[in-house]
Amino acid sequence: MVDLVGGCRAFVSVSETGSFTAGAALAHIPQPVASRRIAALERHFGERLFDRSTRRARLTPFGRELLPAARRLVQQAETLEHDAKRARLHPIRVAVPSTCGVRELAELAAQARALEVHLEFRAAEPGERAELVRTGEARVALTAVPAEEGVWPVPLGLAGVTPPPGRVVFLETLRTGRAATGRRRVWIQPEDDVPHVRDRVLRIRDAVGLSPAQVQVAASLTAAVAEVFASADLLLCSAAQAEQLGLAWRGIGELALARGYGVAAVPGENTDRLRTTLRQAVGRCLGAEG
């Protein structure tokens, strides 16, 4: 049986270069192989593809008529090879925090690809990430867990437009000002609207005598950052996130607070490389130190 794809690839390459030698090089095959494949095509179709009476490989009228279809076949074969290679990589959809930066995710994907692991990302809030794994819409999720239980701890602090004085910010200092409109607020973004982070902040709020309105959960990260840009308010965030947003970051004086991230996966999914070989790359996406 004639090798239609191999023959058409040689046919197209020779037609583009006008030379059997150059066409073979373009197709990454020896010149005798290119000649044999084209001859086999000609026998199969019962017509000459090239006029061999001149030094240059010129297409016959039949060859010119067949060339567009041969190009389409070669392109379809290359697409099939690309899709087959991608399928061999077993794409893994990973649910990640919406705080992850594009550059960091791209670097993680590139590093994983070198290990023949193809990652695709879906940004989601903490509660949704675990649900995506449960429903099978994602095979792996970076889940929010208490920092002491996680693979990647991410220290949190407060960030604002103007650098707060000192190396840390004490929440009790936000009590200054008698008028409610003059009180600075702390905004908790959706990524930190989880009990092991939110509740600890609220307990400190109550302990130091801040009003309930001075610590609020924002509807979105964008909304929280807009409030910070427009006022003296502070955003609860990681140092890496503050740097991305152009905000000055300080730790919290009353407590050491951190996000924690673990890995959840559908049964049978191997996540060892995320925890080992790719651990630092994942950590950069999350804003973990080190």
UniProtKB/TrEMBL annotation:
Pfam families: HTH_1 (PF00126). InterPro entries: LysR_HTH_N (IPR000847), WH-like_DNA-bd_sf (IPR036388), WH_DNA-bd_sf (IPR036390). Transmembrane segments: none annotated. It comes from Amycolatopsis vancoresmycina DSM 44592. Residues 9-60 form the HTH lysR-type domain. Belongs to the LysR transcriptional regulatory family. The keyword Zinc does not apply. One of its GO terms (molecular function) is DNA-binding transcription factor activity. PROSITE patterns: HTH_LYSR. The keyword Transcription regulation applies. This is LysR family transcriptional regulator. Keywords: DNA-binding, Transcription, Transcription regulation.
